[in-house]
Structures are given as C-alpha cells and as structure tokens.
Amino acid sequence: MTGVAGGERGRLGRAADRLPAWSRRPAVPIAALLVAAVVSLLHGQPSPVDPPIGVSVPADDSAPASPNVGQLTLIYSGSLARLNPVNRLALPVPLPAGARALGVLPCYRSKVVQVRFPSGRLVAYAVPDAGGLVRLGEASAVLPDTGNRSVWLVTGGRVRQYGLDGTPVRGPVSVPTGYHAVSGIHGEVIAAGAGPEARTILLPDRGRHRRVLAEGEALDAAASVVLLRQHGRLAVLDLRDGQLRVLPVLSAVQITGPGTLAEDGAAFAVVGTVGEHERLEVGPIAPKSGAELQLVGLDGGTPLPHAPPPRWTDHGTVLAVRPDGRVVFYQPGQRRALLLELGVPAVTAVGTG
To answer: Model-level pTM?
Structure first.
C-alpha cells in the first residue's frame, strides 16, 4: 500500500465506521455538469458529461486551521519532523549525519523512512512512536505489508520482509524483469508490470509457474483488496472470491498515480490529472455510479511526474501533497477540502502519527 492495512483490527474497524455513507452523496447539479463539459473541451479532453464527471471538490484555505487531523509526520527540505497542526509545533526527528529523508511509510506504532546518504546509498529506518531509530537495511524502495507490522525492502531485483525491530522475517524474493513489487500480503508479494499490457502477479512463483492475479498494474493492496489501473481506468480485485470490479470512468481524468486504499480496503484515493491540473480522485471501491466519486483540487503548479502517495488517516480522511508542497486534508463526501496552514517549507511527503 503505498497505503497500509491490517494490524489493528479493532482500531481499523472503528475507523471504517467513520467513513461516509457513500450511497447518500448527492449528484453534481446540471449547471456544474455543463460548465465542466465546456472546461474539459477547452482543455482538449473528452466531454465529462458522458460518462459522469463525479463531484468537483475545491481546496479552501479559509477553512478552520485545525481540523481533526491528529499529529502529522512530514518531510520537507530533506528533514523528517512530527508536527502538531493545532499549534504548528514541528519536532525534527534526528537522522544519521548527512542523511536526507526521501519518503515515509506509516506502520503500526512506528514509521519507516527512506533516506539518502551523500554517497548515494539508500537506507530504510524504522522510527518508533516512542522515539529513536532502528536501521532496517539498504533499500532502493520501501513497500508496505497488509499486516502493518513489517515492511518489504527492495534491493536490486529482490525484495525482503523485515520486522519493525530490524529482524528479517523472510528470505529474499526475486522479482522478474519488467515487474516492480507493490505490497506484501500474507507472506507473499504482489508485483506489477507497467504499460498497456501490464499484469499483476503474486510472488514467489510456485514451481516456475507465474501466478497472474489480474490484467493491469497494481497500485496498492489493503485487507484483501488490490487497487489496479487497467488501460487508463481503475479496477479493484477482491482476493477472497477473485471478483474483479471495474470502477466508473471519469472521462476528463487521466489516472497517473500513485494510489492508496484505506486501511480496511473500503475506499481508494489516487492521483490523476484533468488537463494540466493535478487532481485526487477519491471514492468507495464499490460505487453505484460516477457521481459517488470526488475530484479534489490539487492545484499549485504543474502536476508532478512522481507525486507523493496520498495517505489515509484513522478517521477515514485523506491527506495529499500539492505540487507546490502544501498539504490538502479531505473528508470524503464533503464539498470542500482544506488547505492546512502548517508553517513549514514545501512538503514532499506526508503521513500521520
């Protein structure tokens, strides 16, 4: 998961209870549909009236300065910090000398941060909520596990699972050429190809037989759900029964990624573009129509080629970083998102806790 899942079943159940009643969301007014159609055509996009365009959600910087976000973990200017949005007090997390933080992954009672040293080495560290650093190992990428109490580190063409105390859990798993690992699940690894003919597979191969889960590129996994991108549209695969569900297409939206699932797998958030504007598409994994999908404005500059992943909170809300480094907070189902005033330089990654 560029989003994470599993772990605290009781806590996650309570978080799921706070998710919105998606089926009661109103549709966009007819006037808004017509305006959106005109704007889309001016940008050279297909008309968003057919298929539906979802609900457009602007980000408002005049909203209350301290929504129910909780403590945040931020990366800015190569530093890692914990910040209280209420008093805007940022507490830097000490990193090894010369290390610059690149990304942060929320885990159970801990965070995992990937850093780069001046030599170019990439190393992952666990940062327990109680403080301190635990070196996990060298890692060109850090992947979540749906159990939420371990991570997978990519080195070369292999991926290996580590506990948050630094203990290796399983031996390395080879990733075939042309694939990249996405998430760990039940001791195995979901990996995906890229491009129009991408496939999502489960590793390790059994008896040299490649186990294909679905056509398309996996973006994230949570609980027993996999979020996929298939030929420019989104789909979800339920691993319990093998059912593949294609989500409604919002014709003006180009899905660029990354994407994450809520911790219980009930909702998704994925980065995309409308014309030359970055947007966050948010919705349930089983919408009845495109009107249940929301497009949150992530304006503030040219869309990033490698946008930071959106992060779900324990309260069923979403955090996303705009191209200009400002953080957007969104409660699914609401008609406005909030621009958080954090009092820090441009943010490059965000997490909770």
So the answer is: 0.83
